[in-house]
Amino acid sequence: MRGSIKLGVIAVNITLSLIILSFYNVCHSQSLSDRVVGRYDINKKRLLAISTGMNLFMVGQGQLDLDSAMLLSTRAYKFSRLFPFNEGYDNGAASEGRNLIDSGRISEAERLFNKINGDDRIRLGLDLGTYYLFKPGMNKTDLDQSLKYILQSQKLAALSDKPLWKNESLSLLAKFCAQKGDIAQSQKHFSDVVKANMRAKDKKGIALATANQAINVSVGNPIKLALLEKARPLCRDAGLMEKEVEVLSNIVIEYFITDFNISKAKQAELIKLQNAAGYFHTHIALNAISFIEDVQGDYISSITHASEAVKVMEQTGDTKFAAPFYLRLAQLYFHMDKKEGINLLLKSLKNKSKETQLFWYNSFITCANQMIVFNSPKEALKFLAPVIREYPPTTLYQKMSLAILQGHCHTYLNQPKIAIKFYDLYSTLAENFPAKFAYAEIPSHYLNIAMFYASLGNQAKTKWYVEKAKPFLSGTGSVFNRSKIDFINFKLDSLNGNYVSAIKNYQKFKLTSDSLLNLSSVRQMNFMQVQFETKNKDQNIKLLTQQGELQKARLKEGDFIRNMTFGGILLLLVIVGLLYNQYRVKQRSNEQLQTKQDEISRKNSSLENLLEEKEWLLKEVHHRVKNNLHTIMSLLESQSAYLSDDALLAIHDSQHRIHAMSLIHQKLYTSEDVTTIEMSSYIQELASYLRDSFIHGQDIRFQLDVDPIELDVAQAIPLGLILNEAITNSLKYAFPGNRTGLICITFKQVNDQLFKLSVADNGIGLKPNFNTEKVSSLGMKLMRGLSNEIHADLQILSEHGTTISLTFSSKRVVTGQQMFSLNQS
């Protein structure tokens, strides 16, 4: 026993050690991003999903619809796909219906909607409406399904006593109208939600409804900015800081289209607000500021913000969509004619796949373009070929980028005819590109093509491409692109002999280019590069130090593991010794047990033999009793030859009673069980015997309804005698004058302990004043006496004949089902 306790303690210790090691591994395998996001509350997580989705939509430049961008964002962070859209009623609690939707089991979710009731049904209805509404694409069937569930949710909400559901279903209907392009109706529904919250004096509800009213207006719509400016202070006053961040992000996007200076100032304001809210993912705003500064020619500030964006991205571990951030920093390196940017681009291409092609393809194109710039056009074509084969362009923007790049390659290789083919392809594709996503790249490409044609002396084509670029250069146009126009005009004037104008245009070009890249700027850039490289070296040193410490930790861990291994081996040997000792003890115990078992088996065998002999003796006794009873019956039969009238009848009655008892003894010695009587066959045989004894040409039928019940012999004999008296009574007195008749014998189990025997006939019945208590016949005395013996309730009724019933209870009664169970055990 003690050995077993020791082994149990050891097993517990080993189990605890394994649990601790497993927990250690789980903690260390958790990504940095997961740990950062894990510290966010539900509002910050939702803000992260929305901000990332909006950023993917913007950097996608029309290659990705907003619903697809949001779906990518939620999948990246393992959030519900409904997460960006259900802030009004989602508190983060688990939901069976939402789990079904997120796992793609929409049919099951719809079936569940039809089964459940109350708040859960309204919530699932809103979830299904949201799923279909924000499903990528504009499939009419999806919109119809969305409207179906929105309207059903509205009906259910109208029956609810919670204003929340009325407001949320109406808000979702407003979003539906916005998706359909019916802005006026959408605004009306949102206004109704705002008014409902005003009546309820719900500040948070007012702020959320106003913010959503603004956010769900399409980008560039004149009313959007005013609504956003109205919503922002409401969110601030209601304490909805994360919602204020979302509203300000939308304000930034509106100004990004119309005025870079205001957009940049709002971006800086946005970063401060994010920091105040404890929101660490500021790299998207930093990257946007860097883009604006790049377009404006402020490369010093641009590279500062781009570097900071990459730093924040890596610190938060949010590298799922890292390619655009590395691309921005790399492009700034290229502005300084530094090849180091290529390494950043290659870094963003390490984990490229078809699923993420949308985000790394720009880095791939830019990397090849810089190979051209650094006088390696052949290397660029060589770099392009395998990637294009494996990852052909899938979107309009990718096809445009690849066409312009191939045109540049052949321009640098002095193959103008091939270059023209790709430039024409680019122009054709660009005609179909959405103007709102053009940014600075499209005009820059047009101007590069114009410079190509200027170098060929083709003035018409040069002017045509300049005119194509000009609409993109007002307001948010790049200073660098405007300087290109001055240089192109210089080239055109030179070709036409307008030297005065040519000189002026060249001076303007030089003035702009010198302001962009003057000596001071170059020095500053070089200084920043030194700073950046120094910082990188410091980081590398720090990294090497960390690696050294990690190596030491690993060595210590190795020593620990080795010691644990030796200890484990020693422990194992101890366990094996204990197990062997326990085995020997158990073996000896088994031998002793086997000896005792053999002795018990012998005794059991002897007892079984004795039991079998006892059963045979009992059967022999019953056989002899039966024979003796038959002998008595034979004697009575012989005696009856010398008797007549009442004496003869008495002899016959005695014969029947003796037969009833002898039949029981016959059953006992012919059956396997010598202690119980199977009553159904007994009753059938007794009835058959009595019918043959009494009926001679008279039409009296027997009807038996008997359950398969087995009785102990002590009860069976009295019951058999009572049954004999009852049947005999019916046969003798119920049907005088050869009348036809029916005798029904029923033996049923009423409940677990109660049983009922009845003998009923449809004969003449008892005399009107017949009193069973005063009758002194032997048969009646027998029935009363035997009933008392087995504690039975005897009743005799005369209604449409005579019914004699006997109700008794006994724990010794065994039903057929119980006998089956006993035999099984």
What kind of sheet is the major sheet? 5 strands, mixed
Total strands: the figure is 8
CATH class of the domain at 675-824: Alpha Beta
**Average pLDDT across residues?**
80
Unreliable sequence segments: 1-30, 812-825
As laid out across the biggest beta sheet, the strand order is: 2-4-5-7-6
So, CATH architecture of the domain at 675-824?
2-Layer Sandwich
In helices, the fraction of residues equals: over 70%
Task: Summarize the structure in words.
By secondary structure, this protein is mainly α. The protein has helices at residues 2-29, 32-38, 42-59, 66-76, 96-102, 106-115, 118-133, 140-159, 163-180, 183-199, 203-215, 222-237, 241-258, 260-276, 283-295, 299-316, 323-335, 340-348, 357-373, 377-390, 396-412, 416-430, 441-456, 459-469, 479-496, 499-516, 519-640, 645-670, 679-694, 713-734, 778-789, 816-824; strands at 676-678, 700-706, 709-712, 741-749, 754-761, 793-798, 802-809, 814-815. The protein is built from 32 helices and eight strands. It is elongated and about 170 Å long. Among the domains are: 2-30; 86-180; 202-279; 675-824, 2-Layer Sandwich (Heat Shock Protein 90), CATH 3.30.565.10. The strands form two sheets. It has a five-stranded mixed sheet. Strands 1-3-8 form a three-stranded antiparallel sheet. The chain crosses the membrane at residues 7-26, 560-580. It comes from Dyadobacter psychrotolerans. Residues 620-812 form the Histidine kinase domain. It holds the Pfam family HisKA_2.
